[in-house]
Specification:
- The structure is a single chain.
- By secondary structure, the protein is mostly helical.
- The protein folds into two domains: 156 residues, no CATH class; 110 residues, no CATH class.
- 54% of the residues lie in helices and 5% in strands.
- The chain contains 14 helices and three strands.
- It has a three-stranded antiparallel beta sheet with strand order 2-1-3.
- Strand 1 and strand 2 form a beta hairpin.
- 33% of the residues are buried.
Length: 267
């Protein structure tokens, strides 16, 4: 699959009804980075365009179209799904961007240069996510994922990697419930909260840092804290009278088994 990442046609083949309802052409990777930049500045239309592009590009019909337009590649829609999804996620969580100068020398792009049409983004640097995507998402459910919710969650916080992890954790819970025959809508905010805590515990994070993570992801505090007017986990951890309730929750989750990873789905 790495070989196809280096294929310009593969890398830049994105679709969106915003750009071309006939799906003959679509936005380039560079233009999508610009949408993310605008979305981070609060532009909801830009966030919608990016999410729409994700939705259309990840469809099996789009993979079929790519094969017809650019020739057959010996990879499945499943491989296409994860390769393109990784590209989109990299765009969402980027820290720094690289552009190519007229002398073909790459350099770091300054934030206020991104919307300058003279510059084309040729690379990015950001947090890595080697296994999270395949563990949480399956291609067969592409139409059920809330891509706009993902985009909004990530661009609205400085902890973009944390927001991505929280969204993936919630989707993994929903997938597990669906695979056991329970309604997808059955997962609750408490389950999302618990999954985030479990992920933090598995990474060896201290309790106060877990509280910071919950606050960054705007997870509601325990009802016992809310009744005392405490709506930030870190504040609840600071006060001895409410710390005990948080400790009990963390201890209960710590004693659980680690979450079971969804099994691989065969093509």
């Amino acid at each position: 699959m790495i070989a196809f990442e280096l294929d310009p046609a593969f890398a830049d083949f994105n679709f969106s009804e915003w750009w071309d309802p006939a799906l003959k052409d679509g936005p380039s990777a560079s233009s999508l980075y610009k949408l993310v930049y605008q979305a981070r500045k609060g532009d909801r239309l830009a966030a919608g365009k990016f999410a729409d592009t994700m939705n259309w590009t990840l469809r099996p019909e789009t993979w079929d179209c790519f094969q017809r337009v650019h020739g057959h590649r010996p990879i499945s829609h499943r491989e296409w799904f994860y390769a393109k999804l990784t590209q989109f996620v990299d765009m969402l969580v980027y820290d720094d961007l690289t552009v190519e100068e007229t002398n073909k020398q790459p350099r770091k792009l300054l934030p206020d240069e991104l919307l300058d049409e003279r510059f084309t983004v040729v690379g990015s640097v950001g947090p890595t996510h080697p296994d999270d995507l395949e563990q949480a998402l399956v291609p067969e459910l592409y139409a059920e994922y809330g891509w706009y919710g993902l985009v909004q969650k990530v661009v609205s916080t400085s902890d973009r990697a944390g927001a991505l992890r929280a969204w993936l954790a919630a989707e993994r819970i929903a997938w597990e419930r669906k695979s056991t025959g329970q309604p997808r809508s059955g997962w609750t905010k408490n389950q999302e909260r618990d999954q985030i805590i479990l992920n933090c515990v598995s990474r060896g994070m201290a309790p106060d840092k877990i509280c910071d993570e919950l606050d960054k992801l705007t997870i509601p505090t325990l009802l016992a804290l809310q009744t005392k007017g405490i709506h930030r986990w870190k504040n609840g951890w600071v006060y001895p009278k409410t710390r005990n309730a948080i400790q009990q929750l963390f201890s209960k989750l710590h004693d659980r088994k680690k979450p079971v990873k969804p099994p691989a789905v065969s093509n």
